[in-house]
Structures are given as structure tokens and as C-alpha cells.
Amino acid sequence: MDIFEEIADERRTLAALVSGLTPEEEATRSLCTAWSVREVVAHLVVPLEVGLAGFAVAMVLTGGRFDRANVHLARRHARRSTKELVAVLRQRADSRFTPPGMGPEAPLTDLLVHGMDIRWPLGLHRDVPAERVRTSLDFLTSAAGRGLVPRGTSDGLRFEADDVGWAHGGGPTVRGAADAVLLALAGRPAALDHLAGDGVPTLRDRLSAARR
């Protein structure tokens, strides 16, 4: 598969997962604390339906704040039925949209991280293909992906995903399975208890400070 085929596969996999959730599971708070599981799904639908002009309008309505516009659009789309949201993920799975100035690694990473935002609180496990996780780990530790990582998160630390043979950086070590490393880099404190190494206390302090 090329990376766009991987993105399409991730959207279809997510659609299959969501179609089987109960209303209670959809209402569960995700690891992305601003959103419920259902709102995370709606967020992933937004770029498939809202163009740059629509996002610009949302920015105006939310005082020019990107994060607030993101939350606003996700919550607006979450008013739709689950059946509608799943249908969009399936029908537009092959979309090649990428955020301005970014490549396909950005939407792939968004899908992987938010997929875990949904599955982890629900206790649902999935073995993500190793190459996809490595692509996203490379992206989040690159200059292009730094905007999606809380500032300073990875500075002076060495991250190791020991199940996929991936490592980045130098300094005190943060080590664990690739999904936990990916979530930690994306700023999710829930991953910290699944990581080991002398760099974990520093990372914990940084993620705590980023959420204040």
C-alpha cells in the first residue's frame, strides 16, 4: 500500500469500529479530553467535508483561535447520526486531502492517534501495522510535525518504540510499545503509565505543564 491507501484503510477500519459502538461507548470521554468518542469521530469527518473557506469561517466565529475552531466544528458535526458519520468515513475514505503545507503523513497520524483516543478508554486493542506507526512516529519528531506536539515535549529525550524497532533523539530514555510512545508524543498523559525509562518523569512534568 502507498500512504494514501493506508489512510483509506484507517478510515474504513475506524468506520467498522464506530458502527459497532453503543450509545454509552460513544458518549465516553476520549483521551483527547475536549471531546467524547463521538466528537472525535466527527472531528475526523470534518476535513472530508469542510473546505478551507468553511474552516476560515469557523476561525472568525471562534475569535481566530485554531483550537476553538476545531472543537466548534467537531461538536457541530457530532449532532449528526452515527450512521451518517460512518457513511462519510466510508464514502470518502479515498480522499487525498492534506492540511496546507503538510503531506499525507499528517492525516495518517491524525487517524492513528485519534483511533487510539477512542479505543484506549473503551479497552479495545488493535495491532496497527508497524510501518504505519513508524511513519507517524517519524512525522511527530520531524520539523513538519512539531506543530502537532506540545511545545518542548521531545526536547533532550530519547524515545524508543521497542516493538517496531524505532528510536529518535538523545538523552534520558522514554521506552515502550509504539502506540504508547505515539500517544505520549501527541501529548496524551494516559500513555505515561505504559512507558519506562529515566526520561519518563521529565516527560510527565512537560505533559502536565502543557495541560495547565
Automatic annotation (TrEMBL):
<protein>
    <submittedName>
        <fullName>Maleylpyruvate isomerase family mycothiol-dependent enzyme</fullName>
    </submittedName>
</protein>
<dbReference type="GO" id="GO:0016853">
    <property type="term" value="F:isomerase activity"/>
</dbReference>
<dbReference type="Pfam" id="PF11716">
    <property type="entry name" value="MDMPI_N"/>
</dbReference>
<keyword id="KW-0413">Isomerase</keyword>
<feature type="domain" description="Mycothiol-dependent maleylpyruvate isomerase metal-binding">
    <location>
        <begin position="8"/>
        <end position="96"/>
    </location>
</feature>
<dbReference type="InterPro" id="IPR034660">
    <property type="entry name" value="DinB/YfiT-like"/>
</dbReference>
<dbReference type="InterPro" id="IPR024344">
    <property type="entry name" value="MDMPI_metal-binding"/>
</dbReference>
<dbReference type="InterPro" id="IPR017517">
    <property type="entry name" value="Maleyloyr_isom"/>
</dbReference>
